[in-house]
Structures are given as C-alpha cells and as structure tokens.
Amino acid sequence: MRKGLLVILVLTLAAALFLGGCGDNGNNTNDGTDAAQDLVIAIGAEPENLDPITMMSSPAATISEHMAETLIYLDVDGTLQPQLATSWEPSEDDMYWDLTLREGVEFHDGAPFNAEAVKINLDRFMEHAPFAFLLGEVSEVEVVEEYLVRIHLERPFAPIASHLSHSFIAMQSPDSLEKLAEGDFVEGPVGTGPFVYDGWERGQQIKMVRNDNYWGDAPQLETVTFRFIPEEGSRVVALESGEVHAIMAVPPSEIARLQGVDGIDVVEETSVRVIYLGFNQDLELFEDVRVRQALNYAIDKESIVNTIFQGVGSPSTSPIVPAIFGYTEVGPYEYDVEKARDLLAEAGYEDGFEIELYHPTGRYPQDAAVAEAVQAMLAEVGVEAELKTLEWGTYLDTVITEPENAQHDIFMLGWGTMTLDADYGLYALFHSSQFPPSNNVSYYVNDEVDALLDEARVTADRAEREAMYEEAIQTIWEDAPWIFLYDEGQVNAVRSNVQGLIHHPLENLSAWDAWIE
User: Fold this and answer.
1) What is d(CA 256, CA 469) in angstroms, rounded to the nearest whole number?
2) CA 137 – CA 157 distance, rounded (Å)
3) Strands 246-247 and 482-495, sheet pairing
4) Cis before residue 315, ω within 30 degrees of 0?
5) 20 to 30 A Cα–Cα from 390, which one of 77, 90, 210, 377?
6) Residue 370 confidence class, pLDDT cut points 50, 70, 90
7) Strand duo 8-9 + 20-21: pairing
8) Cβ(99)–Cβ(87) under 8 Å?
C-alpha cells in the first residue's frame, strides 16, 4: 500500500527520534481465505466530526485517515513520505512550494484527484478550519498544471511540509463538498483512501469497506469498524471475548494480566501527547501567576504516573514531549505542598477558594481517575474543586469556546504534536491569535511569546528556531497557563491473529496493511 510498511515500533520516552522496523506487506502469503477479513477496533471516544474543517481530536484523525488521505505522510520513524503528492520543493527564496501530485488517482465518488481538487480543499481549510494556523503563512494556492500545485507564502514558513502531513488537511472530493448545503459539514469522508465510508451509528460505531479501486495495493481487510466503548474495563472484556480485535488505551491495572493471556498481544508505545489542566485566565482568580504556580506545586505528578498509570508515561518537563523538534526541558514543577500554600497566601488566598474543574470521560486513559486525584490534592492546599464530567463531543463544545461564554475555571485536555515540530505544539496553544474556535483555551496572552513564535515559524535555520523555542518554553513554563501534568504513554492490545496493524506515535491505530490470520 502507499505507506508500504508493516511496523513493529519500539520507542523510548527519552528518544528524540522514532525508530521503526518495516517490511513489505506484499511479501506475506496470507490470502485472507482462512478468516473473515472484518476487523473491529474499540476506542474510548466517539469523534466529534469527520470534516477537516471541524475535526479537533485524534479519534477523528485515526478514523478519517483510512478514508481521506493527505498530500504528505508522516511515517512512524518521523520522516515525511510521498502520499498524494509525490514530491515537494521550495523555491530558491522559500516564498512558494511546488507539489507534484500523484496521477491516476480518483476519489471514492469517481471525481479526479488533481491540482484543482487540492486548491479547493486547501482554500476551504484555510477559510473555515479551527486548525487553519497550520497554513497560516499561505497567501495563495495556485493551479499550475493538472498535477502541479504551487503554494505561495506571505513569508518563508519552516514547518509547511510537516503541516501538510496533518490528518486534518486530508483531501475530500470537490464534488461531494459542492453538494453540501450551506452550514452543513461532511459526515462521511469522500476521499481517496483504501477504505470507503459505510455508515455511522451515532454512539455505537463507524464502519468502512474496502476500496477495490484504490490507487495503491488494495487492503486485505474487507471491512474496518471503529466501535465506541468509553469504559476501559468494557473494552478489555470486548477484546477477551472476541467481540473486537483490538483496543486502544488499555487500563494500567490490566496490562500485566493481559500480557499473560494467550491469544492477546499488549503493545506499548510512546506518544507525542501531553496532558494538562488549563486555567481560564479570563478569570480574575487566575490572572495572578502565583495562583497558577501554586496549583502546579500542589499536584504530585510523579504519584499520578506511578499509581494511576503504574509507570506508563512521565511527569511533564515542558509543554511538548522530548521527541519534538524544539523541545527544551524546564520542569517538572516539583510536588511541594508548603510552597503551594505560601504562594496562595501571598496572592491573598490563604483560606483557599472554590473552583469547577471540567474533564472528559473515555477520551484519555484514566481521565476520570486523574481528575479525582487532582481534586484530592488540591483540597490539601485549601482549593475545593467541583468536578464537571462530560462526554467527549459535548465536552469539546463546552470547553473550546470564547472567553465570554466560558463555563470552566480549570479544564483537562491533551495535545499531541502531530507534526513533530514545536510550531504545532506551541503556536496553537499559546499564541494570542489562537483563542477559540482554535485551541488557546487558557486565553493566554504574552507579547514576548507571540513574537518568538511568530519569528520561529518563518526562520529557516534550525539552530535559530531551537533557540527561539527554548526562550518561549521557559517563559510559558514560568507563566504557568497550565497545570503541566504528564506526557502520555500508549498501551494498546490486539488479538494475536491480527497482523500488520500500525501503532503510530501520533496515537493512530492504522489498519490499511492489516489482515486476520
């Protein structure tokens, strides 16, 4: 297939680069006749949407990538590989990029994939998507030839190629987009991928079927179904009973036991995701940096990692994980209850205060348990946190909102730097231009950080960019717009007769090269 890899990926949390092993799926001799090729994967959270201009999460990305493809693919080893674009080259002055497109590709509805289709998709994304910052320096998308598109820039844009690999910038059939009524969104992607959308049972599952006209090697699987099972224990039961073939986010308490179960393989991978609690800095309470720092010292991240996650993951030392270009180690905030109390007293809150802490359930591993642990730790410094628990889709709509509409005092979210570049991990979350509907949900504003992030994304020299990100990260850490919790680990489980699943560091479970023995 176009990824061409069957990967067993071994990553360490301290690694700065991903290491992958690969083999050619075409070499296996299984013809799929010995078992029904209908794969079922259980995940915790239902996607909020599958339209590139509304998607906000990795559950949406991991499902949509099977149906709608990007121009460039970020491989498990961190390299950029051809997908719908076969090559990409900058001009001498870095003011535009030429992308040569793959010929002979059709969308699922028969519409041709070409430069015009790319322009329609990129223009739509830039005009409407919350993640439009990914193409923030793009001034124009030009159709040069049928299979040559030129992306013009306002200024040289260092991470443009990495950004074009993002799952949210996937290509949809222009014909299908044209049929949408005003205000409507794509429900089922009409892409070029190896699987075709076959229906969405809300609250239950999304199903897709094999694309026999796929431009690459057609999948061996006939169908792939992503089933939504929010409760972690229920996902484990579904795996052991054979109801599903694979699950994401194995609860830590079940890892050791499942490792001893015949017919089940536990797969541990790192992740590029940080989990954090954001402060609503539009509130007077959290305008004081001493309060924000105090609550960082009040949380025992080491205990959360070692008890709730049994050592899977690590306390955050930066707003981005070590594997990301531009990472600088500045933490962690050590657990220090006395220091937390002293800072609160200095800020005038020696008797504490009451807040509401919003968190999802079923989205992140052990998210509810983490929220409860945080609640107990905050109580030790006089902060009474009332937990507000919401289902993922409702949660996103509630939390990612303009300051004047915000209900939350503190909220839990995670962020995976899906391009492996600090621009994506910092700009979207800490630049003042990125208030909702984008992702600066803390409403954080620092003019110095803005200037550093603006300059870093248009600087070609990697060493200069690293220096800018180091300064920005140090400032963000001291400003403490978040309670920096932990860098997430990934633990999935798969029935042993399933071969070829790719467990990607981006937290995608990719089935295009998979088959069932």
Assistant:
1) 39
2) 6
3) antiparallel
4) no
5) 377
6) very high
7) antiparallel
8) yes
φ, ψ for residue 351, nearest 5 deg: -95, 5
The DSSP line for 279-338 is E-TTSGGGGSHHHHHHHHHHS-HHHIIIIISTTSSEE-SSSS-TTSBT-----PPPP-HH
How far is the C-alpha of 24 from the C-alpha of 5, rounded, in Å?
6
Helix (H, G, I), strand (E, B) or coil at 93: coil
Q: Is the pLDDT of residue 2 over 50?
A: no
Structure tokens given for 478? 């001291």
Structure tokens, 158 = 């260092």
CA 219-85-107 angle, 5° bins: 50
Q: At 375, which helix (H) or strand (E)?
A: helix 367-379
For residue 86 the two structure tokens come to 């076969």
Which pLDDT tens digit goes with each residue over 167-199? 999 999 999 999 988 778 888 999 999 999 999
For residue 169, give both structure tokens. 């910038």
Contacts (Cβ under 8 Å, ≥6 apart) of 432: 440, 444, 445, 446, 447, 450
Looking at 40-180, list the stretches that DSSP marks H as alpha helix, in order from N- to C-terminal side.
Answer: 58-64, 115-128, 160-163, 174-178
Can you list the pairs that 367-374 forms with residues at least 24 positions away whose Cβ atoms lie under 8 Å?
A: 367/412, 369/308, 370/275, 370/304, 370/308, 370/412, 370/485, 371/412, 373/303, 373/304, 373/307, 373/308, 374/277, 374/299, 374/304, 374/483
pLDDT digits (tens, 9 = 90+) for 274-292: 999 999 999 999 999 999 9
N- to C-terminal Cα separation, the chain: 19
Q: What is the CA radius of gyration of the chain?
A: 23
Phi-psi region at 367: left, alpha or beta (left = phi > 0; alpha = psi -120 to 50): alpha
User: Which percentage of the chain shows pLDDT scores above 90?
Assistant: 86
Q: Which residues contact 326 (CB under 8 A, 6 or more apart)?
A: 320, 421, 422, 423, 425, 426, 456, 465, 466, 469, 470, 473
User: Inter-axis angle of helices 289-298 and 367-379, to 10 degrees?
Assistant: 110
In this prediction the pTM is: 0.86
DSSP category for residue 102: P
